[in-house]
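Sample pair:
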Amino acid sequence: MPDDIKVEINLRLPNITVRTPHEPTRVIVNADVRFIKRIDVPKLPRIGDRLELSTRGGHSVPVMVKRVDWHDEEALFIVGCQYAERSVSPDVYASLTVDPDWSSKPLL
């Protein structure tokens, strides 16, 4: 059985609108940030593949693969993904932001 391949997930999330009864509506803009996680996969994902990732908080993070690039300096594949649903819930977003397996990286 072949070894798993280590890849880095580079996830783009949609903007999040947070509505609460006692506070003004606010929008979390995610256009300039990516969420990063390294995982092992049995085979290299292809463009268009759907992956089910997770957070330690127990939330499912469905993603769609948009690109796969080799990164020489890191010696691994970077898998560019987009959140697979139209919107992300504030609970899933909060779980991503506090999960030590995920890091947020601002785009330059």
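The chain has one helix and eight strands.
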